[in-house]
């Protein structure tokens, strides 16, 4: 008898029938994975977030790309010399700080970019920040609860003063009045800076300032420092004249100009009051 080989056709039909359910199950699992991993508030391709990013991209191309490059990759002057840093990965907090304080766009390059009146509106600043944040992960704009010190206790203010004197006074002065740095740079005064921008500056480290990330300084420590700075902004000078709160520098200058000046004036006045004795020409000398 000849053995009859089992036909391969039933196996092929079985695999063909099994393929569709497997593909369907894979698609279902992919959809479930996307629903779990993607945040519930994620916007679609035509959602508000996408529109804001597109608006920010247009603003960036007009006002920022000439220095930072069309894709925020950084710029050179054509000869390879560095002119503006890359913004990829700086995060929305850095953009919000620089643009809301008017430092960016810069009027001209220099050792220090000064603060000035902002060029963009709040909505435009938010769009620029959203666009730069979409390029790569970076520090986000902190929520209001991170820098709200309206209910700070005296203990928190005191603790913030200790942290400020340890980490900040070398540049910003013991009273937050700012100070000079090498090579024409300076630490700005904090007397008109908002709590939001103080927190963002600690997060991003603008210009010469070091970065105080959450790994370096806890959020509650940052909030205590802000509480201390706000207390300084609201405090009055008990002596009546703060002299810029610059310490021995302005006090010594006051002493030399006013104190020594008064002593010189008194000495001149006394000298003018002493009568001079004149000797007659024919008076014999002894």
UniProtKB/TrEMBL annotation:
Residue stretches spanning the membrane: 253-271
Gene3D superfamilies attached to this UniProt entry: Cytochrome c-like domain (1.10.760.10)
Pfam families: Cytochrom_C (PF00034), Cytochrome_CBB3 (PF13442)
The EC number(s) this enzyme carries: 7.1.1.8
Domain Cytochrome c, residue spans: 51-136, 155-233
Annotated catalysed reactions: a quinol + 2 Fe(III)-[cytochrome c](out) = a quinone + 2 Fe(II)-[cytochrome c](out) + 2 H(+)(out)
EC top class, as a word: translocase
Compartments where found: Cell membrane
Keywords: Cell membrane, Electron transport, Heme, Iron, Membrane, Metal-binding, Repeat, Respiratory chain, Translocase, Transmembrane, Transmembrane helix, Transport
Membrane topology listed for this record: Multi-pass membrane protein
SUBUNIT field: The cytochrome bc1 complex is composed of a cytochrome b (QcrB), the Rieske iron-sulfur protein (QcrA) and a diheme cytochrome c (QcrC) subunit.
Protein name: Cytochrome bc1 complex cytochrome c subunit
């Amino acid at each position: 008898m000849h053995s009859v080989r089992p036909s391969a056709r039933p196996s092929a039909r079985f695999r063909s029938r099994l393929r569709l359910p497997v593909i369907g199950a894979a698609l279902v699992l992919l959809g479930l994975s996307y629903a779990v991993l993607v945040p519930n508030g994620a916007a679609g391709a035509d959602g508000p977030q996408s529109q804001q990013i597109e608006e920010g991209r247009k603003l960036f191309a007009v006002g920022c790309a000439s220095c930072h490059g069309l894709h925020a990759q950084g710029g050179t002057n054509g000869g390879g010399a560095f002119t503006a840093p890359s913004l990829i990965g700086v995060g929305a907090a850095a953009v919000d700080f620089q643009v809301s304080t008017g430092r960016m766009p810069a009027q001209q390059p220099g050792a220090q970019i000064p603060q000035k009146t902002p060029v963009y509106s709040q909505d435009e600043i938010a769009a620029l920040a959203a666009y730069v944040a979409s390029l790569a992960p970076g520090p986000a704009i902190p929520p209001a609860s991170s820098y709200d010190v309206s209910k700070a206790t005296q203990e928190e203010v005191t603790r913030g003063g200790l942290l400020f004197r340890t980490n900040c006074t070398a540049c910003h002065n013991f009273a937050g009045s700012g100070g000079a740095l090498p090579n024409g740079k300076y630490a700005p005064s904090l007397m008109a800076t908002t709590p939001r921008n103080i927190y963002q500056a600690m997060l991003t480290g603008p210009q010469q300032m070091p970065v105080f990330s959450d790994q370096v300084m806890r959020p509650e420590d940052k909030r205590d420092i802000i509480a201390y700075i706000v207390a300084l902004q609201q405090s009055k000078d008990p002596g009546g004249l703060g002299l810029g709160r610059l310490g021995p520098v302005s006090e010594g200058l006051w002493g030399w100009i006013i104190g020594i000046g008064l002593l010189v004036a008194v000495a001149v006045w006394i000298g003018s009051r002493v009568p001079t004795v004149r000797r007659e020409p024919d008076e014999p000398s002894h």
